[in-house]
Amino acid sequence: MGLRAASSKAPHPGPPATGPPSPAAGPMPYDRAMKARRLLLCLLCAVLGCHPAALQRALRAPNPPAAVSLPECEWCGAAEAPKKLHWRTRVAPEAEPGEPLVISGTVYRSDGETPAPDVILYLYQTNDAGFYPKRGDETGNGRRHGYLRSWLESDRNGRYEFATIKPGPYPGGSEPAHIHATVTEPGQPEAEIDSFVFEGDPFLTPGHLAMYRGRGGSGIVRLALDGEGVWRGTRDVVLEP
To answer: Where does residue 203 rank: exposed (0-12), middle (13-18), buried (19+ CB within 10 A)?
Structure first.
């Protein structure tokens, strides 16, 4: 397959996930916390007259919690998909602030004509302020991508559709607004395709257009506002051999 597969270690471009950096001050270092704990227990034993053996057991410090590692592939997500998928999905919750957006299309095999069923699309994006928002309970690459992410599986006619909001561009940057996407064909590794970007975006300059290589077909989507105030666009995804 000519698309970038999940074994790639190339870093994912983009700003910090959710906003301004955290303050420099952090929790008390582990060794200082243990010394403080021992001192407190000794004082309590002196007051309550506890047995020395009990004090020794209490002073056995537990191992510090192991750090939870992130997935090696920064842009992947198909392995974290729910077991049951539909050809339609919602990326942003209905209550998420922003302009509603619906993208639909067909996934085709490399000939651009034969519909490709059972292809998983993984999608993630920024909110309308340009950040990858998090709730704090994310797992896997959700700790990078935030909660504005979802999965779908093309139907027997290759159709797909997702509802979301228009993503915001990164704050203070010059990157066009975009929605990240990967495809996973049955029996194939996950592959990154060109992001969904939007015709008319002032940040979609010739320089940025030159970076898009047509992975998965053209990712440039023309949007139109329907009578209900929903932006709608179409993109057909073409798989590579």
So the answer is: middle
Q: pLDDT per residue over 33-68, tens digit each?
A: 555 656 665 665 565 565 555 545 544 544 544 566
Question: How does pLDDT run across 92-136, given as a tens digit for each residue?
Answer: 999 999 999 999 999 999 999 999 999 999 999 999 999 999 999
Beta bridge partners of 231: 101, 225
pTM of the model: 0.74
How far is residue 76's CA from residue 92's CA, in Å, rounded to a whole number? 19
Q: Quote the CA–CA distance of 78 and 29 in Å, as a whole number.
A: 37
Tokens, residue 186: 């049955």
Residues 49 and 161: beta-carbon distance below 8 Å: no
Query: In the predicted model, what is the mean pLDDT of residues 149-153?
Result: 98
- DSSP assignment of the chain equals --SEETT--PPPP---SSSSPPPS--SPPHHHHHHHHHHHHHHHHHHHT--HHHHHHHT-PPPPPPPPPPPSSSS--GGG--SS--SEEESS-TTSSS-EEEEEEEEE-TTSSSB--S-EEEEEE--TTS-----S---TTHHHH-S-EEEEE--TT-EEEEEEEPPPPPTTS-PPP-EEEEEE-TTS--EEEEEEEETT-TT--HHHHHH---TTS--EE--EE-TTS-EEEE--EE---
Q: Residue 52 class from Cβ within 10 Å (0-12 exposed, 13-18 middle, 19+ buried)? A: exposed
The amino acid at 81 = A
